């Protein structure tokens, strides 16, 4: 490709809304142009790297035996009502109607579409297992799109779904795709961390995210220095602790009756520490949470005796419910964990008026004794005794509260936020924290979709059986952006050879005379060797060309200058020094460089 026939439109400065390196460099190098908030178009230069990322993903999945297909981006809303996610998915899902008034969905994810398509042709156990995938456009109406294509509204995902007879098949499919993921990211020059993660609105279990470290990462990773434990903070668990009293000894049951104490102007845990001269480990913090679309059985929960769940297809759920969540005073509730435990689409602190209506007091004075909504106790509070908690009356707290004696929790679960300094549940090591960006996510869905959407096959005894599924995704755009985040300097991008828009650029100081002849000859030789090469034949000053090519980040640069002929200068983008090579040897020398780096990345 010759630069004069290509679109090269670099910028001196990045747009004001570009705050992270990948966004700045993708805009400055001319890879992207913005159409609207969270909507970016790949220009020809960026599209080449974008397609290289897709090529690597496709090659490794095909090698792993996965089968590519192409579902539509627009899907019938009926499928989402079948699965029970029409309301659960929330406002991120764009729901247009066609001219007949039929509800439609602009695909934010593809479980429903794949399940419906497989349902049409699946009949026998002999057809299973198989894994299907797509590389396709998605749309999520992000409330705050940011960081360019790292978190845009329209984006490209690779989605794969395995359909399996039983757990053994699912485990094998899961491991097969996980192995392919590791090859994919290695080929792109990315060092990933595999972490336990929350499945979110997709449901399922056995979840694992593939992360890269990033200073601007959206995710918080909890890591153990002594073993391989790694988890997203939304999923991380820690070793259990024994609650301690004010003397630093394990708490013991009390026979003392509950005592109500007036506590004017005591609102926070810090206020309570001062007022009671007690450690926060003795406080039982009670918080009222509003929970959306919980699908757990609440028929026997306090306050739900006369509340009927909503049915959507084969799914039943409570669109809105409230829980009193108890946790040790020095800890915080993890809302992602809470939503997961309650099989809900989300959970958030209740509004002030709801808190007072349900508990009799504002937050700070809420307590579990006598409350008329379900109490969910965090595991940190299970062995607490002789506690101090809110009285359910503004301006008052209770002393000597005994869980089990004075109140009975509806359920117990791990909903605490793990922090650095907590202990690893596997080896007892002390956790530390890093920021990361998620590139890929894999999890075992089980029968969540096949059951709700009535997918069956006939087993060896001709009996109908529901298959189970695995789900596997890679964000193409954020993977591309993450490559740039990890490979750049003050001058621009430093592409790995496998993803670069071009592997080599030839820069004649002036595209004229002997410099033109040598440049053209090198261009033809490299192309005949199978090298992706750009010839910068633009009528620009040499400094402009050099700056542009450093910004764009092409791995190998050949400079053809009249002063150096019959030698040419070869410089690798990732190195500071250049070398002079006879022009007759340059094409083979550069070909060897390109092939060696490709071999190292692809091995």
What can you tell me about this protein's structure?
25% of the residues lie in helices and 28% in strands. It has 13 helices and 31 strands. The strands form 8 sheets. Strands 3, 6, 7, 8, 9, 10, 11, 21 and 24 form a 9-stranded mixed beta sheet that branches. The mean pLDDT is 94. It is elongated. The protein starts with 20 loop residues before the first helix and ends with a helix.
Question: What key phrases describe this protein's structure?
Answer:
603 residues, six-stranded mixed β-sheet, nine-stranded mixed β-sheet, 31 strands, elongated, 13 helices, alpha+beta, 28% strand
Summarize the structure.
With 603 residues, the chain is α+β, with helices and mostly antiparallel strands. Helices cover 25% and strands 28% of the residues.
Chain-wise SSE layout:
Blueprint: H1 21-28, E1 32-36, E2 39-42, H2 44-63, E3 67-68, E4 74-76, H3 77-83, E5 104-106, H4 111-121, E6 130-139, E7 154-164, H5 167-187, E8 193-196, E9 205-213, E10 219-223, E11 230-232, E12 259-262, H6 269-276, E13 284-294, E14 310-312, E15 315-328, H7 335-341, E16 346-349, H8 352-359, E17 375-378, E18 387-390, E19 396-401, E20 411-413, E21 432-446, H9 448-452, E22 457-458, E23 464-465, E24 468-475, H10 476-486, E25 488-489, E26 492-493, E27 504-508, H11 513-528, E28 533-535, H12 542-552, E29 556-560, E30 567-572, E31 578-582, H13 583-602
Parallel strand pairs: 3-6, 15-17, 17-20, 27-28, 27-29
Antiparallel strand pairs: 1-2, 4-5, 6-7, 7-24, 8-9, 9-21, 10-11, 10-21, 12-19, 13-15, 13-16, 14-15, 18-19, 21-24, 22-23, 25-26, 29-30, 30-31
